[in-house]
Write a structure and sequence with these properties.
The complex is a heterodimer of chains A (about 425) and B (about 290). Chain A has about 425 residues and is an alpha/beta fold. Chain A has 18 helices and 14 strands. In chain B, about 30% of the residues are buried. The chains are: A alpha/beta (about 425), B mainly alpha (about 290). At the A-B interface, helix 3 and helix 17 of A face helix 13 of B.
């Protein structure tokens, strides 16, 4: 009897402590954020931003659910339609966001920006890709550029200078190849890496506006100008300038070849630095994609940011968080360790690399988001597979382009 | 009255699992069939009835033809390789020899591994530059055979099928080991006394009595080959179009391309193909069993 009483008292004590803890926690608001920032560097940078928000808002408990990038894209539609949607989600500007806004799945956030409107601290040029039908639904946090990253040590050792034209680029590739260095790394296992190649090659060969019209479904894939773009890429492959077995390498694995000096160049986004070893970062630099038919050039400048689902449970806390993220302070906190460019214009480039990237972007005549952000996802997926197919089976180019065109007609008709 | 109450008791116990089965399996199957006649995305906001349009599109879709062709390769390999190899291994392990149990356990290990682990192991084996397979081929003087197994469209399906077959063999082995244990030893001894050879005993006594196990093995192999997805997903993330099968195409269409109606149409086709194969085979085999 005595033992039973002691046991019962202990149980009551434990249960009441648990409940007390629950009561204490339930006094705080809960904010759920679903994020695709699964690489270590951005994940840590974002965690620091969240910690600062919690410090400034002790009545809000933030939970960040991180999902791997590719799986996030698949899961997002189901989250947005769920009755228990997360409060904030990471996403991309442009078509990919607007397709959700069009379906009424997003909460307008016109009032969360510093100074009361988007244009006060954010570039006017970002507003189009952040809005739909007169309302802003997307809060841009950072943007970056794609460029040709190269290993400075390899270039110096072989006496190579930065190529500005296509012929110069081919000459550099030839020297690298003759010296046993893979001229161009390309981790094409996930296929999206060739999207950058298509953006840059097509805009270099045919112009940025032509490429935009193509991604908007206004140009057939059987157009001779599109065929020419594919032929340029096939030519690079036939010359042996792409790393061997590219489709067996994830993008991070291909980046390792660049860092180790086994590859000379890599067309990639600025986030390639996120996976660079600290002691090798100094060996990597970038230059703009070489021009082909004109002195003008286009750049890929994907913009990442956040949205609030229409079904978010705690929209007040979500808007508070978005308002905090939009401030120069928060954007600087995120971008500085990563070397990215903040969308807020009050944040200057935070290091020499970012300043160089900004100058490159400012000098471009045309800006693209990225192939799978400017075009519908299915079209981009089929386009990127078609590029890999063409590189591996160049004799089938006509059939590949015809199939792609059939997909274009169907996809854009829907 | 007591008899009636007793006959209700099993149904009471079955009620919950049957309800769950109906909710999560049976009803979604019929829902998919309905969805296949609509144009809808996975967000299910815009839905409209399109009749047979998805199926008409399917029959003209070269990617569907490729998926069908790849599935046929899977089917052929799954029936022709794991079954005879599994049977051979089962016959071997049915003998009494030292270390029998240890070898049986080792052979069964692939079945105990999750697909995530299998994918990781085989991704490294197939790595073209430093994977075990290509390194071995180069070491024995066959560098020409060292291919980009998961990156080259010519070898992708074969490489994936090899992984599937490697995992399927122990499953078939276990089926046949169970079947062999059920064969009355007196029949074997009687055949032995009659002076039959091992091959004659196997052909006229053992193999016919393994009929039920063979029916089960072939049925399961057909089903597993037609619904192969896990291995393709973990090794290629369904991005490799050249290795497309019906299950991966259905997944990509519904969840990557947000074309739920079309994905459902693919699912219906996959179900019909599997169902027809199974009905034909089981019907035929049972007829032969009854005649015997």
């Amino acid at each position: 009897m005595k033992k039973f009483m002691v046991f019962a008292i202990i149980c009551v004590f434990c249960v009441s402590t648990l409940f007390a803890q629950g009561v204490k926690e339930s006094a705080k608001q809960e904010l759920i954020i679903n994020s695709y920032m699964s690489d270590e560097a951005p994940k840590n940078a974002f965690a620091a931003v969240v910690a600062e928000f919690e410090r400034q808002n002790p009545d809000i408990a933030v939970t960040v659910n991180t999902t791997a990038h590719e799986q996030f894209k698949t899961l997002l539609p189901s989250w947005l339609t769920s009755r228990q949607a997360p409060d904030v989600v990471t996403w991309f500007a442009g078509y990919r966001m607007q397709s959700f806004a069009k379906r009424g799945l997003l909460e307008p956030i016109n009032d969360i920006f510093p100074g009361g409107s988007f244009e006060v601290e954010f570039p006017q040029s970002f507003k189009g890709a952040s809005s739909y039908d007169g309302n802003v639904y997307f809060m841009p946090q950072s943007w970056y550029w794609w460029a040709v990253y190269y290993n400075k040590a390899v270039f110096n050792r072989l006496g190579l200078s930065i190529p500005e034209t296509w012929d110069e680029f081919l000459a550099v590739c030839e020297v690298l190849k003759r010296n046993g260095v893979s001229p161009i790394a390309m981790g094409a296992k996930e296929t999206w890496t060739v999207g950058g190649w298509f953006d840059y090659m097509n805009s270099a060969v045919n112009g940025g506006e032509f490429h935009q019209q193509l991604t908007m479904g206004e140009i057939p894939y059987t157009d001779p100008r599109v065929r020419k773009t594919f032929e340029y890429l096939i030519d690079l492959s036939q010359r042996g300038y792409f790393q061997p077995n590219a489709t067996s390498y994830a993008w991070q694995e291909a980046a390792t070849l660049l860092f180790k000096g086994e590859a000379g160049m890599y067309l990639m986004g600025q986030f390639v630095f996120d996976v660079a070893p600290a002691d090798l970062k100094g060996d990597i630099d970038f230059f703009r994609f070489p021009t082909v038919n004109s002195k003008e050039y286009a750049v890929d400048t994907p913009t990442d940011g956040f949205m609030i689902p229409k079904n978010a449970r705690n929209k007040d806390a979500a808007k508070k968080f978005m308002a905090f993220l939009a401030t120069a302070e928060a954007q600087k906190m995120f971008c500085e360790p990563l070397g990215r460019l903040a969308a807020n214009t009050l944040v200057p480039p935070l290091n020499a690399e970012a300043a160089k990237g900004l100058e490159m972007v400012k000098g471009a005549s045309f800006a693209m988001q990225f192939y799978d952000r400017d075009a519908p996802e299915e079209m981009a997926a089929k386009g990127m597979n078609a590029i890999i197919d063409a590189l591996q089976n160049p004799a089938r180019l006509d059939a590949i382009l015809a199939a792609l065109e059939a997909d274009r007609v169907r996809i854009y008709a829907e | 009255m007591r008899l009636k109450k007793q006959s209700l008791v099993p149904w009471c116990f079955l009620a919950i699992p049957l309800t769950m089965y109906a909710i999560w399996v049976v009803i979604p199957v019929f829902q998919s069939m309905l969805f296949s006649f609509t144009h809808r995305d996975s967000i299910m906001i815009e839905t409209r009835f399109v009749g047979f349009a998805n199926f008409i599109r399917l029959f003209a879709d070269p990617q569907f033809h490729l998926a069908l062709k790849n599935n046929f390769v899977w089917l052929l390999c799954f029936v022709c390789i794991p079954i005879p190899v599994g049977l051979a291994v089962a016959l071997l392990f049915n003998l009494d020899f030292g270390g029998n149990r240890i070898f049986k356990t080792l052979y069964y290990i692939p079945m105990t591994l999750s697909f995530a682990v299998i994918g990781t192991i085989w991704a490294w084996i197939y790595q073209p530059d430093f994977g075990v397979l290509n390194s071995f081929l180069r070491a024995i003087g066959l560098p020409g055979l060292a291919k980009q197994w998961l990156g080259d469209s010519r070898y992708m399906t074969g490489a994936l099928v090899a992984v599937g077959v490697w995992r399927q063999i122990p499953y078939i082995m276990i089926l046949y080991i169970a079947g062999l244990k059920n064969i009355p030893i007196e029949l074997i001894e009687a055949a032995d006394i009659d002076g039959t050879s091992w091959m004659q005993r196997f052909r006229h006594v053992v193999f016919p009595l393994l009929g039920p196990s063979t029916i089960m093995a072939v049925t399961i192999s057909i089903i597993d080959s037609l619904r192969s997805f896990d291995i393709i997903y973990v090794l290629t993330n369904t991005k490799a179009r050249a290795a497309e099968v019906l299950a991966s195409y259905m997944y990509s269409s519904a969840f990557h391309y947000q074309d739920y109606g079309y994905g459902s149409a693919i699912a219906v086709m996959q179900f019909l193909i599997t169902f027809l194969f199974i009905v034909f085979y089981v019907n035929n085999s049972l007829k032969n069993e009854i005649q015997r």
